[in-house]
Specification:
Layout lengths: L4 E3 L5 E5 L1 H17 L9 H6 L10 H6 L7 H29 L3 E5 L1 H22 L5 H7 L7 H21 L1
Antiparallel strand pairs: 1-2, 2-3
Helix pairs in contact: 1-4, 1-5, 4-5, 5-7
């Protein structure tokens, strides 16, 4: 497994990945990229150009986690979503694409901007996987007692690895 991230020059970050790790990261990030495809926009050309979209909350629990309601009031939240979700989706796709473009086996040097994009993309992957696995705060206890024969074991270990990567990236950035 990787040694994680370490501080680089000029606020950048250095990471070392083997080919298997890059393959896993690419696969997971591609999955998220597919989930955050452009949302529904209005038939109105001006609204479409401005990215004003559908106001209804997502029914998929992962998308609801990636794009949570901004307000408790349903009407306010719906209006906020209508004006912001398309831009949020664009940002998530951009971050995912940055990770895909820069992930490579061996030593990887990331600019500060690329490292921030990685941070956001790794967070989106963790949120996606964690939601699908129904991860709770007891994940470490659950993982310790889980048999390696459990069909969920590889996914939980992957989630734990992503948590480690995100933690080491935060430490490298600050």
């Amino acid at each position: 497994m990787s040694s994680g991230f370490s501080p680089g020059r000029g606020g950048g970050v250095i990471a070392a990945f083997d080919a298997a790790e890059v393959s896993i990261l690419r696969s997971l990030v591609s999955m998220v990229l597919g989930l955050v495809a452009p949302g529904q926009t209005s038939d109105d050309p001006l609204e479409r150009a401005l990215g004003i979209g559908d106001a209804s909350p997502p029914s998929d629990p992962v998308l609801a986690r990636l794009f949570p309601s901004a307000y408790e009031d349903e009407r306010e939240s719906s209006e906020f979503r209508r004006y912001t979700e398309a831009t949020l989706r664009d940002g998530k796709r951009s971050d995912a694409q940055t990770l895909l473009d820069t992930a490579a086996p061996g030593r990887v040097e990331l600019t500060p901007e690329q490292a921030q994009a990685w941070m956001r993309a790794l967070n989106d992957v963790r949120l996606t996987l964690g939601t699908r696995l129904e991860v709770t705060e007891e994940i470490h206890q659950e993982l310790e007692s889980m048999s390696e024969d459990d069909p969920r074991y590889p996914a939980f270990v992957t989630y734990d690895w992503l948590t480690y990567l995100q933690d080491s990236l935060v430490r490298a950035l600050w």
